[in-house]
Amino acid sequence: MILLLIKAIVSGIMLGMVYALIGIGLNIIYGVMRVVNFAHGEYLMLAAYITYWLSVSYGLKPLTSLHVIIPVFIISGIVMYYITVPRLLKSEDPEMASYLAYFGIALIISTGALVTIVFPAITPAMGSPYTIKAFVVIVLGGLGNPIGAIAGGLIFGLVENISAVFIPTALSPVIAFIILIIVVMIKPQGLLARA
Predict the structure, then answer these.
(1) What is the pTM of this model?
(2) Which residues form the domain of 61?
(3) Shortest CA distance to 9 belongs to which of 158, 184, 163, 119?
(4) Higher confidence at residue 31 or residue 183?
(5) Residue 132's closest CA among 63, 36, 48?
(6) Phi, psi of 194 (to 5 degrees)
(7) Counted domains in the chain
(8) What are the residues whose beta carbons fall under 8 Å from the beta carbon of 115, sequence distance 6 or more?
(9) Within a domain: 194
């Protein structure tokens, strides 16, 4: 049981850092521009598909494929910025406009990925849970605070993995969301929110 708990802690830290990275990206965008990117998880899914494709087609290992993935997504991010953000900021309610625009982008990217279903662990629907977890992470840590996203990601990953040792794995996210509810009730601005 002790060994299982140690493994859960180590994998919880690793998973928490993945959640933290996703949360940091979302938090930076929201913190700087007050634009909510609902397509955030879909970009993760798209990157997973491209990584898999590069691995199968060209034999690139995932870390090596970052040399391709990063420039591709930097360019796509710049294009998406110039296509969406100026229009969003001109609207009466830029936050609501960003919700709707990025929700639409998320749907487009998910639909485009349907044709690439090859690897069962990578699915077109995999982005949405990561987007939801990214929102949880930034709420836990504090909106607009990237360091808070790291703390929120670690808390969420650790709670998910450690609780899976004691209860069925399918219920472990429930425990993490209960922690979120408790934090929001006690400190609604997040654990490390800026004053």
Answers:
(1) 0.76
(2) 2-186
(3) 158
(4) 183
(5) 36
(6) -75, 145
(7) 1
(8) none
(9) no
Mean pLDDT, range 128-157, rounded to an integer: 87
Per-residue pLDDT of 1-39, as tens digits, reads: 899 999 999 989 988 888 888 888 888 777 766 777 777
**Is residue 110 one of the residues assigned to a domain?**
yes
Count CA atoms within 13 Å of residue 169 on its CB side: 2
Residue for token digits 């077109």?
A: 124
In Å, how far are 3, 8, 94, 146 from 149, measured between CA atoms?
Answer: 28, 21, 23, 5
Task: Judge whether 192 lies within some domain.
Answer: no
User: Which three-class secondary structure string do you get for the chain?
Assistant: CHHHHHHHHHHHHHHHHHHHHHHHHHHHHHHHHCCCCCCHHHHHHHHHHHHHHHHHHHCCCHHHHHHHHHHHHHHHHHHHHHHHHHHHHHCCCHHHHHHHHHHHHHHHHHHHHHHHCCCCCCCHHHHHHHHHHHHHHHHHHCCCCHHHHHHHHHHHHHHHHHHHHHCCHHHHHHHHHHHHHHHHHHCCCCCCCCC
Encode burial over 157-181: b for 16+ CB neighbours within 10 A, e otherwise: bbbbbbbbeeeeeeebbebbbebbe
Report yes or no on 174 lying in a domain.
yes
